[in-house]
């Protein structure tokens, strides 16, 4: 097909329709289109219809299931269908989750604009997970196994438990600090039995006041603990609001275009009116959350004031009684109110310390379980297995480089798949493009050989990068036809070229013309497809 007629868009829509985010220009996005993708896994045929971020999935003869977003339930179900068993840690959290379909398709799609110059840079919105390239690479080449991720999931689950235990311990520490701050320690030889004896005539009244005071101390401790927590949340919320305000101001005043390229990863981010409006929406949500926190703090402050007032009343009553009773001990005058306070404090601290000791044991046991799971995780990835993966990769890669006659690129340091930066830093010459193709196909081969997942079609957008010579383009096409097994599917986007003849003779060819993808004469046929599906979505 000719250039600029939509071949790249057509191949992108296959992954977009499944839930990925390939780079689509603003012109295409403005069309607000729907996409249907049909595919087969085993003997079951599936259909996916995507509109915006709403997904409809049909499995065999079952009715369509609607998913209002790509992440979450749709991601989990899609992963089950293709046996994608990887997990990633969401940035800034300890949340381990199944990543969206884009991470599954990483080894199986080569984009025309980005993939040839940067490794796995063909989908947007991937930065939600830190260091995803290394983790996903190790999964797709079979270094990280299903058992590895099961243990990783168990570790993160246990870490959540440990964090909850630590939170409880921190609250108990706060309780002890609060009680100590309200009641100074006193030294007395008077024990509880002696105290009961000398206060026998006022036992009922003092007992009630002592119990009430103890409850008030407990309330104060809880309020102080909650206040410290929400003050911390308020600081975070204030920071988020300030950051969003700065982001919006920067997007309006400092960015003249509707796009901005990330200086770290090269990802193109939109800066359209819609995106700027979404920043304001996020800011409003953050401000609403901040207001909720401030309202909660206000209630806590009211609770603190009320509790303190009640405590003052109780202590005043005790003080009235105390005026009648003063204990002399070792030349020291100890008021009865101080002893009552001391006994109340001791009672609370004793209970809290007992509970804290139990939590410390729980935390220790949790840490032991985490260590045991980490040891098991290390045992899974043995040095022998690493050596096997690296050796197999290098054998494939060096062989493919030789077939494509790309030996002129410095490959001396590319001894394992994790060395992708050393290869892609070599630049974009024609020979470098062939070396990059060798690298991608080596990863693809490793995935089929070692990773226990469904291997989808290999999508390649325009392999004739950097204007390959006829001889070298012949080698590229011969390489793809011979090295990709016959039971695998290749979907290739390319311009009309004599070097494609053998490939075309063995392929189903879709030819685009100047009308590109949205062809008026095909509208009725396409509409029938959607008309058959959409009534079943209601």
What does this structure look like?
- By secondary structure, the protein is of the alpha+beta class.
- The protein contains 16 helices and 13 strands.
- The chain has helices at residues 7-18, 26-30, 73-82, 101-105, 132-140, 146-182, 192-198, 203-253, 273-322, 336-380, 383-403, 420-424, 430-450, 470-483, 501-505, 523-533; strands spanning 34-41, 44-51, 54-59, 65-67, 88-89, 96-97, 109-110, 259-261, 268-270, 326-329, 332-335, 458-461, 490-493.
- The strands form five sheets. The chain has a four-stranded antiparallel sheet with strand order 1-2-3-4, with helices on one face. A three-stranded parallel sheet has the order 7-12-13, covered by helices on one side. The protein has a two-stranded antiparallel ribbon with strand order 5-6.
- A hairpin with a 6-residue loop joins strand 5 and strand 6.
- Helix 6 (146-182) runs antiparallel to helix 10.
- It is elongated, with a radius of gyration of 34 Å.
């Amino acid at each position: 097909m000719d250039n600029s007629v939509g071949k790249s868009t057509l191949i992108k829509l296959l992954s977009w329709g499944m839930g990925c985010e390939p780079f689509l220009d603003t012109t295409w996005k403005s069309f607000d289109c729907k996409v249907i993708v049909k595919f087969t896994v085993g003997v079951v045929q599936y259909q996916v219809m995507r509109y915006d971020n709403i997904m409809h999935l049909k499995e065999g003869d079952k009715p369509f299931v609607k998913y209002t977003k790509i992440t979450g339930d749709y991601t989990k179900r899609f992963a089950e269908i293709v046996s994608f068993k990887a997990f990633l840690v969401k940035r800034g959290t300890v949340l381990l989750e199944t990543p969206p379909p884009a991470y599954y398709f990483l080894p199986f799609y080569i984009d025309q604009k980005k993939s040839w110059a940067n490794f796995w840079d063909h989908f947007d919105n991937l930065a939600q997970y830190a260091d995803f390239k290394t983790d996903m690479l190790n999964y797709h080449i079979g270094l990280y196994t299903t058992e590895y991720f099961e243990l990783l999931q168990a570790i993160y689950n246990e870490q959540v438990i440990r964090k909850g235990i630590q939170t409880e311990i921190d609250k108990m520490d706060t309780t002890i600090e609060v009680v100590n701050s309200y009641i100074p320690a006193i030294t007395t030889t008077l024990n509880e039995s002696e105290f009961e004896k000398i206060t026998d005539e006022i036992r009922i009244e003092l007992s009630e006041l002592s119990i009430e005071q103890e409850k008030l101390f407990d309330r104060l401790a809880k309020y102080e603990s909650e206040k410290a927590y929400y003050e911390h949340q308020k600081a975070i919320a204030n920071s988020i609001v300030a950051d969003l305000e700065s982001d919006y101001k920067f997007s309006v005043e400092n960015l003249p275009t509707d796009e901005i390229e990330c200086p770290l990863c090269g990802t193109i981010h939109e800066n359209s009116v819609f995106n700027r409006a979404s920043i304001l929406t996020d800011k409003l949500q953050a401000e609403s959350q901040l207001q909720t926190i401030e309202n909660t703090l206000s209630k806590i402050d009211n609770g603190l004031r009320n509790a303190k007032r009640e405590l003052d009343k109780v202590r005043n009553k005790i003080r009235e009684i105390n005026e009648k009773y003063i204990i002399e001990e070792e030349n020291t005058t100890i008021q009865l109110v101080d002893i009552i306070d001391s006994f109340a404090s001791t009672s609370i601290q004793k209970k809290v310390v007992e509970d804290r000791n139990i939590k410390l044991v729980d935390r220790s046991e949790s840490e032991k379980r985490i260590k045991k799971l980490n040891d098991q995780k290390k045992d899974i990835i043995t040095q022998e297995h690493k050596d096997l993966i690296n050796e197999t990769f290098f054998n494939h890669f060096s062989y493919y480089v030789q077939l494509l006659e790309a030996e002129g690129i410095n490959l001396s340091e590319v001894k394992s798949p994790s060395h992708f930066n050393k290869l892609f830093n070599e630049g974009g010459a024609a020979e470098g493009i062939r070396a990059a193709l060798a690298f991608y196909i080596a990863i693809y081969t490793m995935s089929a050989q070692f990773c226990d997942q469904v291997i989808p079609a290999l999508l390649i957008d325009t392999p004739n990068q950097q204007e390959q010579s006829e001889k070298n383009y012949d080698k590229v096409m011969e390489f793809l036809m011979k090295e990709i097994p016959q039971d695998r599917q290749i979907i290739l986007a390319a311009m009309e070229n004599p070097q494609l003849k053998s490939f075309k003779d063995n392929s189903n060819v879709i030819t685009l013309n100047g009308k590109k993808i949205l062809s008026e004469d095909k509208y009725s046929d396409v509409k029938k497809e959607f008309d058959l599906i959409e009534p079943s979505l209601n």
